[in-house]
Structures are given as C-alpha cells and as structure tokens.
Fold this sequence. Notes:
Helix 9 (206-220) packs antiparallel against helix 10 (224-239). The protein has a seven-stranded mixed sheet, with helices on both faces. The chain has a three-stranded mixed sheet with strand order 6-8-9. It has two domains: 2-202, 2-enoyl-CoA Hydratase, Chain A, domain 1 (Alpha-Beta Complex), CATH 3.90.226.10; 206-252, Lyase 2-enoyl-coa Hydratase, Chain  A, domain 2 (Orthogonal Bundle), CATH 1.10.12. With 261 residues, it is an alpha/beta fold. It is built from eleven helices and ten strands.
Amino acid sequence: MNAPVHPLPHLAIEERDAIAVVRLDRAEKRNAVNDGLIASLERFFEAVPERMKAVVLAGNGEHFCGGLDLSEHQHRDAFGVMQHSQMWHRVFEKIQFGRVPVVSAMQGGVIGGGLELAAATHVRVADRTAFYALPEGQRGIFVGGGATVRVGRLIGSGRLVEMMLTGRAYDAEEGQRLGLSHYLVEPGEAFDKALELAQRIAGNAALSNYAILNAIPRIEDMSMRDGLFTESLMAALAQTGEEAGERLRAFLERRSERVKR
C-alpha cells in the first residue's frame, strides 16, 4: 500500500505499509544538498511517524546525491561556516541516532555531502553505477558534514586522507570492498533491495532496533569496561520487555522462522 505524505521541500515521501520512503528530489541538480533540503531532512527525521518502523532513503534520477550545492554557496565568516557545519552534524545525528533504522539505496554519484549523508544511514545498498568521492580539497574547502568521523571509521583515516588529497573516486566494487556499501546489486536494483531489507528490519522488535542504533556507535567511543557495562544494560532492557518474551516463546515453540543463510 503506497500512501503519499505531506510534502517537504526537495523531498518526495511516501508510505509503504510500515516503511517510509524518502527520496531526495532535486534530480536536475543531481540531488545536491542546499539548506532547504537539509531543513526538510531535519523536519522529517526529528518526527518520523510512530507507525513507521524503518526508512528507505534514496535519490530521484541518476544520482543518489552530488554533495553540497555550490551554486547556492553563501559567503560566511568563520563562525558562520562553523555553525553551518554544525547544522549538518545535528541533522545527520538525527538520522544515525534516531528511532528507526534507515536503509539507503545508492546509484550514480555519492559525492561529498552525499557520502556524508549515506554514511549516517545504517544499511547501505549500492548498484554498480555508484561511485564515491570527496572533492572538497579540489574546491578549496573542507568537509563539514561528518566525513572525518563517519567515513573515516568506515574506510580508515589513511584512506580518507588519500581520497581527499587526490580527489580519487572509488567505483561501486571498490566501495563495497571498503565498506561504503553493505550490498552491491545490478544497475537499477538498489531501491528494491533496500526496500526488501527495510521490510525485514521493520519486523524486528522496536526496542532491539533502537538499542542497535543507539548503543553500538556509542560503545565504539567507550573504554572496553564501559562498553561491556553499557552492553549489559541494553541487554537487560531489551530482554525484559514484553515483546522479547513473546518472541522468545515463539522461537522455542517453533512458531518463528529460524536463521537461514
């Protein structure tokens, strides 16, 4: 069942049962990010409807996202640039540490701020047309949407430095090997695969999904002892919930699907 959602500027949003499909909708600009698009992403992800259990984030047209829209570049002083960067950080944190898992479907350019946006999602599907780049060094600027943290953690700081210094673009196969994508599919198949995964994820217990999204990245920043303590707290919360009890009973009574390859 497809149901359109009240529009936000530069986004095309629809509901497919418990899945919200959010498409960047500036195809004529390769879905380049401007302040209006960032504001719309913030408005959506700060209040994802309760009935939605997962989100598919995609781009209309041939490209996922071409990065910052330099045609709308505004002159800012140093403090203004810092605040602008922190606005991106705030919005992408609402995606990464939100209530619902986000699966991105990537094709064509995943460039600059587009790669930063994708890196804030939880599961990334690319088709073989996808390519990845951080060209800020060639533009005389520096990343400001979280690449030094999120992309650096995906591919390592050494590769990030080389990528930014040389302007190197990774193709879809290289991106898959490096961890920029989790799944690699044939051209035109990324959205369908992302939707399939989102539907599977939506079937998990909501508290389990929330714990996975919000505990694991924070544990990565902790000492081992603090991380293990936090893990035990999340296990206690998840495993004593009513939904967990029912799911465990269903498994033991062979009423739920077993793990398959």
